[in-house]
Amino acid sequence: MKTMRFSEMTYQRPDYEAAFERLDGFTAQLASAQNAGEQLEIYRTYEELCSHLSTQITLCSIRNSIDTRDTYYEAEQAYNDQQAPLLEEKAQAFGKALVESQFRPQLEEALGSLLFKNLEMDLRSFSPEIIPLMQEENRLTTEYQKLYASARVPFQGKSLTIAQLGPYKESTDRATRRAALEAEGGFFDEHREEFDSLFSQLVKNRTEQAKKLGFESFVELGALRRQRNCYSPADIARFRDDVVRDLVPLTMRLKERQACRLGISDFQFWDNALKFRDGSAAPQGSPEEILAAGKKMYAELSPETAEFISLMFENGLFDVLAKEGKAPGGYCTGLEDYGYPFIFSNFNGTSGDVDVLTHEAGHAFADYTATKTVPVHALRCPTMEGAETHSMSMEFLTAPWHPLFFGPQTEKYELSHAEDALLFIPYGCLVDHFQEEVYRHPEMTPEERNALWLRLEKRYRPYLDFGELPFYGRGAGWQRQLHIYLYPFYYIDYCLAQVMSLQFFRLSLEDRDAAWKKYMDFVRLGGTRTFIGLAHAVGLRSPLDEGCVREVCETAFQWTEAHLVE
Asked: How far, rounded to the nearest angstrom, does the alpha carbon of residue 335 sit from its chain's CA centroid?
């Protein structure tokens, strides 16, 4: 494993032609190997090459998202986007040879049967025939990200990014909150045709990919690409129904409480983000002080997290301040050659900054741990519901250190954080349900999609009233959710993971040491089991188990009832 600061890491455009030749060679060698031992050695060499390629591609992607105006990395990102489907074609050929190996029983014993199940799903979701469509899809998603990052919103004499508008949407002044949302919506309205066109092209593109692969719609293909290896779209639909039946009534009560706290009788969308009349809980101190508090938190949490956070700071594996030209959102990714994670975000002075230090660091810690506990690269990260369980659970398990960030506002933060966890699940289901309907009916016009979003808002968030807000009121608010454009069907992973995190929350209230031990057991398994298998392996219920949503969410709601703050 190499050791180097992120700023010193050298990006070099991957030599794809040479890589393709080597990958073809590995595939041929698998076919001619005389025993399982030879094939295992070939597989390990294959993973080393994939690690090198992934590291360079990820370096480029990070630097492109840090500054989308950098023309060098913009061009490199476009080039890598074009090559990615060709690389996928070579990887699929290798995977097919592995799946069809005469020594598969011995290989499964050494590498795990789940690896082969996942490879079989990958093979069903790809064909060389769709490479041009995949290249076009990559171009369109990059175009969306660049358009979003270009936002400069004039507000109160300033020019702000979308992320920098965040604190104004939580202002204690009601007129300011509404004005901030109107200003934000103004950017999307100004670029309405571009956002609509990009999504229309993506829906058409993904639908065509699905049809060429023999699927009825992109819904089925999307499930394969999300590696739904232990449940189906029908199972997800039942989960969404559980949420509507068992959780949405609780969220209505949460919002009634919030309106009372704010002293508002006509609760509107622009009141949604403000949790307390005197202001939402905000982190105390500068961004640098928040990072320092995060370092102290992880140094004290456990020996494993102390080692992890030391590595992160020593090697500069963060870029978290909001600035011009920076891509929206936040993420954690991995630099495989170094065994390092990297955290990207947009600090804006709200409690979300602390959530990043717990959520994205949860991903990063899991990634760092799995590199030491899971030898097979492809099994280090679970499917994304499992990965999001790492991050969302860390948000609750770090509760004893919340005073470092929030001081006297800690109780306010903890109440709003628990409330937000419950409120998020229906919203995530809304995003997922919207996508399913869109991809089952790809002929929808932009206006029909917006009308669909508004109908589903009434199902999942019936407490919202958009008033006269032009952007949100016309049902286009979904265009702010980058996952809908970039990562179709990802969002339900967050919902499943949030239910898991609430189980860790409950355990931590009963016995913190036992909860941490169970969390470490979960993290150390990496992706060696399915999502349901991971939950059951550590003695937790799967969110898809009968009655799980009701039990877990009612317990969390009762905690909020017992910890009210005015």
From this structure: 17
pTM beyond 0.70: yes
Tokens of 430: 């809304």
Q: For residue 294, give Cα distances in angstroms to 12, 79, 243, 356, 405.
A: 33, 37, 33, 10, 8
> Exposed, middle or buried by CB within 10 Å (0-12, 13-18, 19+), for 209?
buried
The torsion defined by the Cα of 304, 307, 308 and 313, in degrees rounded to 10, comes to: 160
List the strands of the sheet with 331-335, edge to edge.
318-321, 340-347, 331-335
- Core vs surface per residue 162-197: b (16+ CB within 10 A) or e: bbbbbbbbbbeeeebbbbbbbbbbbbbeebeeebbe
208-222 per-position pLDDT tens digit: 999 999 999 999 999
Q: Are 265 and 259 in contact (CB under 8 A)?
A: yes
Type and span of the H or E element at 238: helix 233-246
How far is the C-alpha of 34 from the C-alpha of 428, rounded, in Å?
A: 50
Q: What is the C-alpha to C-alpha distance for residues 474 and 476, in angstroms, rounded to an integer?
A: 6
Q: What is the pLDDT of residues 52-90, one digit of tens each?
A: 999 999 999 999 999 999 999 999 999 999 999 999 999
Q: What is the DSSP letter of 321?
A: E
What distance lies between CA 46 and its chain's CA centroid? 27
Distance CA 467, CA 459 (A): 18
Q: Distance between CA atoms of 526 and 424, rounded to whole angstroms?
A: 25
In whole angstroms, what is the distance from residue 308 CA to residue 301 CA? 11
